[in-house]
Design brief:
The complex is a heterodimer of chains A (188) and B (158). Chain A has 188 residues and is α/β, with parallel strands linked by helices. In chain A, 43% of the residues lie in helices and 16% in strands. Classes of the chains: A alpha/beta (188), B mainly alpha (158).
């Protein structure tokens, strides 16, 4: 092919530049449609649960991070002032009945109200940490209840879900990770 | 009538004082701390209401973070220590101006890279243009003769 022929083809290819740019932009924008800009990963992922020493809800003893580690478990941040927590509660009970260990973090709440709630609505929690001032909440990076952390057997945070845990969230997000971690624990 | 007006006005004013009271104030042991408090609470982003800083937001978590910020400043923490504390817990996300590390490097460098790119395209475009425009398009003696001939034809016709 002659030099002018090549040049000719080059200028013809240039005509496709707007189309090419459009395809690139459209791909990026289309991806953006399915992203959730408010979703932010926890800063604690793959780091151990922060050290704490807080009273147990409804029992006269202090709890520390050792009390919630030992097996793969959920740590659920809840409060009686949190309306979504009430929505989430029945499903947590189902999970607990199915044998999933769930620990509660009663976040910036009054003990009396929390105990009444558990009495009325049932108690899915192995035990509850009473974080009245929200100090453990800050160390965990909690910014609103409900939040649910998936902990492995060593008490390392593996995942955080912000918002209500329902059947959909459990089946598609938490359960696969839960099964994977449980398997890893059983085959050292 | 005036009584009704006075009552209405006082009712409105009562409402106004409530609206102002939503964001609490703190006492600082010295004005320098207060300036740093202002700076940091403008700089830190509220994790709950993500388009506000903690100074503007009245979300409970922003209130908690302001209280923590006040406590930390009063106990002598440096700006870096405060930011590190917050980033450790809420991620790089809490800073409106993220640190120059990780993927944020791309963010910081993007304007400079785009500028270089644009200058590059400009230079390339200018170079690919013919240097002297008149070189190829100027009329030769032959063209001039033909032009003259055409002009003559038109004049004769009219």
């Amino acid at each position: 092919m002659s030099a002018s022929g090549l040049q000719h083809m080059g200028s013809r290819l240039k005509l496709f530049l707007p189309l090419f740019l459009f395809v690139v932009l459209a791909t990026i924008l289309f991806r953006g449609l399915s992203l959730d800009p408010s979703e932010m990963p926890s800063a604690l992922i793959d780091r151990p649960l922060p050290q704490f020493s807080l009273p147990a809800l409804g029992a006269d003893r202090m709890l520390s991070s050792e009390d919630v580690s030992g097996e793969v478990a959920l740590l659920n941040v809840w409060a009686t002032w949190c309306i979504s927590c009430r929505v989430e509660h029945p499903y947590l009970r189902q999970l607990a009945d199915a044998g999933v260990p769930i620990f509660g973090l009663n976040y910036k709440d009054s003990d009396a109200a929390a105990l009444r709630w558990l009495e009325e609505l049932g108690n899915p929690y192995r035990l509850n940490i009473a974080d009245r001032e929200g100090t453990l909440g800050v160390d965990l990076g909690v910014y609103g209840a409900p939040e649910t952390y998936l902990l492995d057997a060593d008490g390392v945070v593996r995942y955080r879900h912000v918002g209500v845990v329902d059947e959909n969230v459990w089946r598609t997000v938490l359960e696969p990770l839960y099964i994977e971690l449980t398997r890893a624990e059983n085959t050292p | 009538m005036t009584l009704l007006r006075t009552l209405l006005l006082s009712a409105l004013m009562l409402g106004a004082s409530h609206a102002v009271a939503l964001i609490e104030t703190y006492d600082f042991s010295n004005p320098e701390l207060e300036a740093r408090y202002q700076y940091l609470s403008d700089e830190l982003r509220c994790p709950k209401c993500q388009n506000q800083n903690i100074a503007d937001s009245n979300a409970p978590i922003a209130q908690d973070l302001r209280r923590l910020l006040h406590q930390q400043l009063e106990s002598g923490a440096s700006d870096d220590e405060v930011l590190e504390y917050m980033v450790d817990r809420y991620g790089e996300f809490v800073r409106y101006r993220p640190a120059f590390s990780g993927t944020a490097v791309l963010l910081w460098l993007a304007p400079i890279l785009l500028l270089f790119g644009a200058v590059g395209v400009l230079i390339a475009t200018l170079r690919s243009r013919p240097k002297n425009v008149s070189e190829g398009t100027a009329l030769t003696a032959e063209d001039n003769a033909r032009l003259q001939k055409l002009l003559n034809t038109t004049e004769r016709d009219s």
